[in-house]
Amino acid sequence: MYTIGIDLGGTNIAIAITKEGKILIKKSIPTFNKRDYKDIVKDMGDTSLALINEVGLSKDEIQSVGIGSTGLCDSNSGTIIYSSNLNFNNAPIREAFQKYLNVPVYIENDANVAAFGEYHYGAGKKYKDLVAITLGTGVGGGIILDGRLITGSFNGGGEIGHMVIEAKGEQCSCGRKGCWEAYSSATALIRDTKKAALQFPHSMINKLVENDLNKINGKTPFDAAELGDEIGKKVIKQYIEYLSIGMANIINIFQPEVIVISGGISNQRDKLIEPLKERISKKIYGGIKYFKTDIRVAELGDEAGVLGASILNIMHNS
Predict the structure, then answer these.
(1) What terms describe the molecular function in GO for this protein (predicted)?
(2) For position 288, what pLDDT does the model report?
(3) Are 295 and 258 in contact (CB under 8 A)?
(4) Cβ of 80: how many Cβ atoms within 10 Å?
C-alpha cells in the first residue's frame, strides 16, 4: 500500500506519496502561514489528490496520511494545539483533512517526525536509540528510545532546544533566557558572527561578505576559519563549545547510541563533528572512557520530514 507524508512548515509545505520508504512523487507549495487552518488544509488536500492522480493511483490505494507540523501537536485528537509559525490554535487538522481523503491521519511535531525518518531510513537505521538535533532557525529535537518516540505525557516533550545552559543569558524566542537554542541555532551563530565582524572590521569575515553583514550566513565563519582567520576560528570555537554543552547534557540523560545532526550547519561535517566529539568527551559523566555515543550527520536532508510522516502509521500502531 501507499502512504502520503506531509511536512507542514511555516514557509513551505512538502507533500509526497511513498511506498516502502521510497518517494514516488513530491511537491512543495507555499504555506502562506497567516491564513486560517482550513485554507491551508485545503491546499494540502487538493495537492494530495492531484499527486494521487498524477501517479495513476486511486484514493482507495492510500493506506494513511502522516503530517509533521511545526508547533505543539496532540497526536491522539489529531489537533495542532499551538504553533508560533502558523495561525493555529486548537486546529482540528485530522478532521479537516479527512474531508479530502478519508483515511487514517496521524499528526506529530515536525522535529519528531524528521527524527523518525532518520531512524528508519537514514543515519539512525542501524541503532535502537537515537536523538536527532536540527540546527536551524531554532534548535529542534526528536528522541527515540528502543524504537519508540518520546513525547511525554502531554505531547510536548523533546524540546531540547529550550533547556537553559546559561542562567540569565541570551534572550530566547520562547521567552526565557539562556536556552541552548539561543546559543547553538544557526540564528545564534549568524548573530555572533555579525558581532565579531563589527568588533573586528579587518577580519576575513568582512572580506568574504564584502562588508555587507546581511550576507553573513552559517557557513561564513567556517569559511573564514578555514582561510586562517583568527576571528572566524574564535567564533567557531565558541559556537562548538556551547553546542557541546547541550549535547553532553543529552548524553548524560539518555545515553543514546547515536546523535544525528541536521540543518545547514551540519553540512560542515568533519569541521563540526570532530571538534564537537572532542569537547563532548570532556564533559560527559565519566569522561572519555565512557563516551560511546556516535555523533553523525543526518542523511535524508529535506526528505526526512515527508519520509518520517509517511510512516507515522507504523509508530501509532506498534
Answers:
(1) kinase activity
(2) 85
(3) yes
(4) 25
Pick the CATH number of 126-298 from 3.90.79.10, 3.30.420.40, 1.25.40.10, 3.30.365.10: 3.30.420.40
Q: Are 106 and 112 in contact (CB under 8 A)?
A: no
Strand partners for 15: 6, 27
From CA 59, how far away is CA 19, in angstroms rounded?
14
Least confident of 122-136, 148-162, 260-274, 295-309: 148-162
What the block records as the C-alpha cell of 6 is 506531509
pTM of the model: 0.87
CATH number of 2-118+302-316: 3.30.420.40
Tell me how far CA of residue 117 lies from CA of 51, 61, 164, 185, 280, in angstroms.
21, 22, 28, 21, 25
Q: Return the C-alpha cell found at 187.
A: 540564528
Task: Give the cell for residue 98.
Answer: 479527512
294-297 and 105-109: which strand pairing?
unpaired
Distance CA 196, CA 210 (A): 15
Q: Give the helix/strand (H/E) hosting 4.
A: strand 2-8
Q: Kindly state the average pLDDT of the residues 234-256.
A: 97
Q: Domain segments of the chain: what residues?
A: 2-118+302-316, 126-298
